[in-house]
Amino acid sequence: MTIKETTFTFSNPQDHQMIGILHHPDTLSGTVGLLVVVGGPQYRIGAHRQYVHMARHAAREGIPAMRFDYSGVGDSQGTYPGFEQVAPDIHSAIDAFLHQCPQIKTVALWGLCEGASALLLGGAAHPAVSHIVLANPWVRSDSGLAKAYVKHYYWDRLKSPDLWRKVFSGGLNLKAAFSGLWDNVQKAFLPQKNIDDNSSSSKQPDTRPFPDRMQTGLAAFSGKSLLIQSGNDLTAREFDDLINSDTQWKETIALKINQRIDIADTDHTFSCEKWRAEVAKSTANWLKSSP
């Protein structure tokens, strides 16, 4: 299938000029377009050119795709506001996508890491968003990271024959090792300071930790949702630990996630061609089967 790639500019609410790239097929497979939302202060190409490959694969499957730079990133003007505050940029990109490609009626948002978090922190609240794809969502906190280390790192180390060979041969600094373990246990399991939930007040900003606000955002989303998790990634394990231990998250995931795809052995950014292609194929297939 022939693909046309077009560069264009659009403005965000601060009137900063932003850069977008449209990948448009000659024949559409449906009426939904794919907007790639990057994670953090990252260029629109993505790690290992992942977003370029994903957008081109979607276009070859008849799905128009768009990539863009946040304010202050890449070729866009302004100052990067941080992933918790990029919803206005995402909404402007959605409006520009719909204007540039009037054949589509709704937009699917795809985000990795902080990009996935940004979708749930307001990015997916745009009325044109019908689908979201969350890849290895970022929910890191000191206690969450400590729990992940205790559960997924130290436990695996204790089962390793190499560790015990070092212990009995004197090749391991036991004091330093157990000091690190104890620090993480304290962070993981000591009570955390309670923060009041201000989300119900229209006069007060929502000052809850961002993972709590992400859960609220997912609960409020009325479209279809796909979760993609890497098999060998601490960020993915932190998210799994959260959604399996927190009652509100567990209930929201059960209600709102329509499909989950686990890709074995993959790292955080799906860095090899096989993994990158599998993510792109899974995304396009899901969109075409989820009108």
TrEMBL record:
<dbReference type="GO" id="GO:0016787">
    <property type="term" value="F:hydrolase activity"/>
</dbReference>
<feature type="region of interest" description="Disordered">
    <location>
        <begin position="193"/>
        <end position="212"/>
    </location>
</feature>
<dbReference type="InterPro" id="IPR022742">
    <property type="entry name" value="Hydrolase_4"/>
</dbReference>
<protein>
    <submittedName>
        <fullName>Hydrolase 1, exosortase A system-associated</fullName>
    </submittedName>
</protein>
<dbReference type="InterPro" id="IPR029058">
    <property type="entry name" value="AB_hydrolase_fold"/>
</dbReference>
<dbReference type="Pfam" id="PF12146">
    <property type="entry name" value="Hydrolase_4"/>
</dbReference>
<feature type="domain" description="Serine aminopeptidase S33">
    <location>
        <begin position="49"/>
        <end position="151"/>
    </location>
</feature>
<keyword id="KW-0378">Hydrolase</keyword>
<dbReference type="InterPro" id="IPR017531">
    <property type="entry name" value="Hydrolase-1_PEP"/>
</dbReference>
